[in-house]
Predict the structure of Dehydrogenase.
Amino acid sequence: MNNKIKIGIIGCSTIAKASTIPAILKSTNANLEFIGSTSERKAKEYSLEFGVKKFGSYEDVLNDPSIDVVYISTPIGTHEEWVLKAANARKHILCEKSSTTSYSSAKKMIDVCTKNNVRIMEGFMFRFHPSHKKVREIIKKGDLGKLFTFYGMYGFPPIEKDNIRYDKSLGGGILNDAGCYPICASRILFESEPIGIFCRLSLDKEFQVDTKASIMMNFTQERSSQSVLGYDLFYQSVYSLWGNKGFLNLSRAYNVPPDMPVSLNIKTNDFEKKLSIEPVDHFELMIDSFVRELRVPDTSSFSFEKDLLNQARVMEAARISHQEKRYVEINEIQ
């Protein structure tokens, strides 16, 4: 594999344009080689804006032998199709979150990637932000004592109803769109998988997609995670941790602009302090982490494929919990 990994884009999404493509362009480890879209006009528009010579269809990207990695940024409901096609084309895959719409779909995706000896990572860029590493250091140091609960909020101002988030057939809805974040964050910070979950979703009557969510998860050692999410709300992207010795909250937890510092506030019986984490581009950190793992396997702090499956399993349990109006144990999901 050459020094710089060549990346092709599958899906000219808003997040690709605003964050992922600029991060690839900034990376010293990757080159943006090809723009793929279902619209030739949009592919050309993106190629001109970002100075990329090659543009065309999704198939054109996959058929280009120079491409090492594809970034899949299509609607969630189409991820499985393009992950399977990319894997069969022997391309490594960075897939936007949520990875897919069911646990069975996630297992199929991993199986095909494994069969074709390609890697796949779910694109949770937030986990690469140094603020979360600092939070884990504080937990390990014992400042918070025995952890009791994680509490997360992630919500957005009104979104136009023609947005794909309101299209059920494309995997729209707040759970797939944003609920995945606090689920992932609590798994990371507790360094374990939940035992069970209760999820309640509020549906838009016209479009029948979930627009608000309340999620509760139980973990071992009497720990729990609670998250609330929604559209048509004052913007929030935060979480807090509460232990028997202290309390911590993060001012910006998930989608952090590259020029924004993050504040970390800690309160204990002995002290109060505020830490400031300098601005970074966590999309760029994600790209570089993925590339490093491709060059030198097993250098990442987590298994991409195992984490994708574990996340998908919890998401599936959340969907079943809402559908069946009950608490679902994670080991029910096989």
Observations:
- The CA atoms of residues 24 and 287 lie 7 Å apart.
- The chain has two domains: 5-125+286-301, 129-280+313-332.
- The chain has nine helices and 15 strands.
- Residues 5-125+286-301 form a domain with the Rossmann fold fold (CATH 3.40.50.720).
